[in-house]
Amino acid sequence: MKAWFEYNWQVRDEWFEVWDQLPAEELVKERTGGIGSILKTFFHIVDVELSWVRAIEGLEDWEPRFEDYASLDAVRRLSDDCRRQIRGILSTASDLKLRSVVQVSWHEEPLVYEEVLRHVTAHEIHHIGQLSVWAKELNVKRVSANFIDRGLGQSLLQEKHGPQLRGEGRP
Amino acid sequence: MKAWFEYNWQVRDEWFEVWDQLPAEELVKERTGGIGSILKTFFHIVDVELSWVRAIEGLEDWEPRFEDYASLDAVRRLSDDCRRQIRGILSTASDLKLRSVVQVSWHEEPLVYEEVLRHVTAHEIHHIGQLSVWAKELNVKRVSANFIDRGLGQSLLQEKHGPQLRGEGRP
């Protein structure tokens, strides 16, 4: 699962660079679809990611308010802080943990730990897709959504089987 | 990986139901972002998915033309046909195969088999995010992008460890 998070974080950081070129008023302008504005969408992605990961770890709920992070720099710092927490948590994600059943306060049914990690992964990719439409409307560069060409193939091999393992050629 | 494909296919089918309610001219209307129209985006998702999966299987390239599938029903039938092929292929996706290095005619660098499956997964979620903006603009129901609440937690457990295994409760 770590490579999925690395993918989303790479893409997110590249979007931060794109938004950095835009006037602040474009970032807070309400738009059709998604969470309403570019900045709110980014805040929402970060908030949702950490909230779910903390919840399935059994950690105290975390409820940041958008009003406290209402600039691109603030959301980026928040994103960096959250990432450090999540990297730490994911570094302990054994197969046994990924298969464990978890209960989250805001969701009635039990869930599988990895199911939640995938939920968070899909959540960000989905919102980034929405943002890409807004970027096209704004005529700004769009970040590639490609999973390939990000060095993640090697991460996948290392994640599963340690850094020594190399992929086998296909027959 | 199978649960990711099942996720995308569930979401895709739910969107087919939504688009079925729209007049045909809305489906072919050119829009900002993505592949240009709702129908072209759906065709593109199906085309890209099967092309990559066939390529990493070493199967002959497959190049359907949009002109041959220019209605919602035709794209849905294409989607169903492709899904059957891909289900068959994924059913043979052992860990060894997922880690294998593959070469695809349209991509210079070698890739890891699972890296490509993830690329295809993210590709569809990204485009569905774009479609959700258009759906909001059209004031039609938007399909949930949630990975949870789709029965995929159990699929994950079965995928990895056979149908008998149950998740363990967290401490």
TrEMBL record, chains A, B:
The keyword Metal-binding applies. The keyword Lyase does not apply. Keywords: Metal-binding. Pfam families: DinB. InterPro entries: DinB, DinB/YfiT-like. Belongs to the DinB family. PANTHER family: DAMAGE-INDUCIBLE PROTEIN DINB, SLR1116 PROTEIN. This is DinB family protein.
